[in-house]
Amino acid sequence: MIRKIIHLDLDAFFCSVEELLDPSLKGKAFAVGGSPSGRGVITSASYPARLRGVRSAMPTREALKLLPDLLLVRSGYRHYSEYSDKVMGILRDTTPIVEQVSVDEAFLDVSDMPQPIGSIALDLQKRVMQETGLPCSLGCATNRLVAKIANDYGKKQVRTGRSPQKITVIEPGKEEEFMAPLDIQALWGVGPKTAAHLRQRGITTIGKLAALSDTDLKNYFGQHGESMRRRARGIDDTPIYPESGDPKSVSNEMTFHEDQDDEGNLLKILRGLSEKVGSRLRKAELAGNVVQIKIRYSDFSTYTRQNSLKDCTNLDEDIYDEAQSLFLKHWQSGRPVRLLGVSVTNLEKPHRQLSLWDDQGNKKEELTKAVDDLRERFGKDIIKRADTLKPKKP
Are residues 191 and 288 in the same domain? Predict the structure, then answer.
């Protein structure tokens, strides 16, 4: 399976939050930073300020010399943390495989989502803006290295004095081609000193580094020479590491290319989502007793509904039965649906007590385990439900 990795970066995050708190700042050259009387530095600069040369990590005193009318603001980290939590919550609502690397930056692994990666990124960008008011840019690729570099590259192409809100997609197989013409310092592991050393020897692009001989790579990078060549070719197998500890919920959702209003089709999709959630729960050796569905309509209005079960479960049928009941009870029949989601919460290690005469639960568990084993050995498509198959044309 080809991996689908997204890098999301909030555009000028601190400044974007300040604009939400004080809309009069929009369009102005301002920065979040420390006091100019001392060793204060610029933490974040608005895009109008960036156009005039102000950069993050620049000493505040130097920034004010460059731009005397620069406004300095700072509302406090509490506001930034609150907005960051909102965004990360949206990301974890999309996939449980989210690695937050800073207050305004995260990687997502969306490999098990069927939509094209660019479509997933666009929906994320729209949702973050709609629910938080924050602009963001995203890089999409088959690995985290290329996704991050793609996002940095895409944002730098926009110089309008406004948030880039850029989505940059590198198609599978195009990683090395994308990387080759980029400046050598864009590559992870090449700092300013190393870059200057390489440029003196004519190695100015990532492609030129990738073409170096084994001997030259060893001379420049020692034991890391081969790993640098792999990076220069856009090869990176590093997984996305979600938060440590047990998840609070397991979910799966699908955003449709075209809004759906057919009940039968929506129920088939709901079953598939329920099966994915059940599979994830069993792999994590978890079960839950609260089933929740999410319905987002074509106008982006979103509703979640949930119900508690008598016992914890991680079985597909149990999850789907409750999800189906919730859907049929709350869906506004005929109203076009943009997104459908299923989640199970209130998780714990699976356990169930059966009465002496009740073996129905055992049969369902045995059947589910047999299906899991077959899919593990032969692929997820080895077994499909009859109602998901398209009828053959006569």
Answer: no
